[in-house]
Write a structure and sequence with these properties.
The chain has about 180 residues and is mostly helical. It is built from seven helices and no strands. It starts with a helix and ends with a helix.
Length: about 180
């Protein structure tokens, strides 16, 4: 039972934060890029992950028994992407604004790609973990419930704290790092 809750935390926390964060991405990036550009960024993050999930699924069929390692690697790579994204959006890098925007796009798509690739692996790990003692529908519903509760809490907090939306990027990165360890 404990293993299930660890998986639920490692999947539900970052997935809930990611889904809530992307729903307010245009508010988060206001002043950094246009709303239209942030919409395209969110679309690219999601679509790249959809395509990547299929590719990772096909690849993982050839490497049975490596789901946990693959999920950890994918989460680590997404952390790297979201870390660079956070640094770019916060203007912490000594580069021009155009380079920051370009790096933010690349890092955002990178992070979204690798994170979205990990989601099906987490579901599969969950099903392997609960096999024999809990129904798949109950386990899936619990994962979705954790994810939804995290989204609700995230979206209850005001978008700007002290005039800045940077807290969203740092929280997203922090929870991704926490769930990766």
């Amino acid at each position: 039972m404990g293993k299930f809750w660890v998986i639920a935390f490692c999947m539900g926390m970052p997935l809930g934060i990611y889904q809530a964060w992307t729903s307010v991405l245009s508010l988060n990036l206001k002043g950094f890029i246009s709303e239209n550009a942030s919409d395209w960024l969110g679309t690219a993050m999601t679509l790249s992950g959809c395509v990547g999930s299929i590719a990772v699924g096909m690849l993982m069929d050839r490497f049975a028994g490596c789901l946990k390692s693959a999920a950890a690697v994918l989460m680590s790579l997404s952390c790297a992407g979201f870390g660079l994204f956070t640094l770019c959006v916060g203007s912490y890098l000594p580069v021009s604004h155009q380079i920051e925007v370009l790096l933010a796009y690349v890092a955002g798509v990178w992070g979204g790609f690798f994170f979205n690739c990990s989601i099906p692996l987490f579901f599969e790990i969950t099903m392997e973990t609960i096999f024999g003692w809990l129904g798949e529908s109950v386990a899936s519903a619990t994962l979705v419930m954790v994810n939804t509760l995290v989204q609700i809490v995230f979206l209850m907090v005001p978008t700007k704290i002290d005039g800045s939306a940077q807290w969203m990027n740092w929280l997203t990165l922090g929870l991704f790092l926490l769930s990766t360890t």
